[in-house]
Amino acid sequence: MREQPVGLNIPVVWSEDCLRHEPGGEVWLGVREPGTEVPARALVLRDALAVRGAPIVPARPHGDEILRAVHDGGLVDHLAGVWAAWEKEGYPAQHGRDRVVPYVFPTPGMLAGLEPRVPPAVHGRAGLYCYDTMTLIGPGSWAAIRGAVDAALTAADLVSAGAPLAYALCRPPGHHVTRAAYGGSCYLNNAAIAAQALRAAGAGRVAIIDIDAHHGNGTQMIFYDRADVWYGSLHVDPGAGWFPHYAGYAAERGRGEGDGFNRNLPLAPGTGDADWLTALDALYDEARAVEPDAVVVSLGLDAAASDPESPLCVTEAGYRAAGRMVAALGPAVLVQEGGYDLASLGGLAVAALSGAAEGAGLRAP
Ligand SMILES: [Zn+2]
Q1: What's the predicted TM-score (pTM) here?
Q2: Terminus-to-terminus CA distance in the chain, angstroms?
Q3: How many C-beta neighbours within 10 Å does residue 343 have?
Q4: C-alpha dihedral, 173 to 179 to 184 to 190, nearest 10°
Q5: Is 176 known to be catalytic?
Q6: CA 96, CA 288: separation in Å to the nearest integer?
Q7: Which residues are placed with Cβ below 5 angstroms of ligand 1, an ion?
Q8: Catalytic pick from 176, 214, 215, 235?
Q9: Comparing C-alpha atoms, which of 139, 272, 296 is closest to residue 219?
């Protein structure tokens, strides 16, 4: 008799709309390049997990309450409407501008204390809520952005209802988005929204562990003044020349009531499994000390050695060990962040989720 394969028993929450965001590249250092945050990422992840037996659960539509508790309403409205305004002004058809790309940014230094105005012209307004040139918006972007939020909220619902683990296959990713500014190929902060939803459903304290290769500056700043959501991240050292450059340093520990509820462990380029897992072990201890009722994992798979977007050198075995560790902290919503090497992405996701299943005491393949 043939041995039956053991399925990966973690719900994979998925929205078909996530495929509709086609950024069409990114403008990096003044040159438009093809970019790596492509729709195929989501298909590779979904298919790899489905083949291992994970149930694919459709994302349920949710209202805006949690979304607008996390984000400035102006940002949400901007993302929902900027493409239509861009199109109406003729940028794609008459001027060859097929994506929304800002060219001027109202930085604090520019305004020197003036209240930022909302420019009537969409080409001026494009930079109002954006902080870089590599996070483009096209016709299907809003549907995908909102689909990713619904996936995160549906996964949070499952965990709030008693599931030990749920995985939100969010695309586009989200952890670089602050309360009122998007960038880094991210538009709305899916992980922060999941954390807020867990709080709203009764979790007294939530721990967010961010293992994406890059610092989750957006998530950090959303919860920087709060003690009810602890944030910890291990990531390539921004001081070594890596995005997000301006945040992610060890000295950032939180502020006011949130003082002591933020922990960054920047790692040197080239860091592999041993040192990466040692750092994660330290984060685990700190997270456990705050006694979280629920956990959100910003699951970036771009710390892998094969990934084109980071210099970290983690293996599938490393991701499996990481999954095991974070899921042992408590009921967990795993939220997909980065991960860009299409050839290795599926294996990495299977490894991370298999480890998480073990950590949560589920049977794992
Ligand atoms: Zn990343």
Answers
A1: 0.97
A2: 19
A3: 8
A4: 0
A5: yes
A6: 52
A7: 212-214, 300, 302, 338
A8: 176
A9: 296
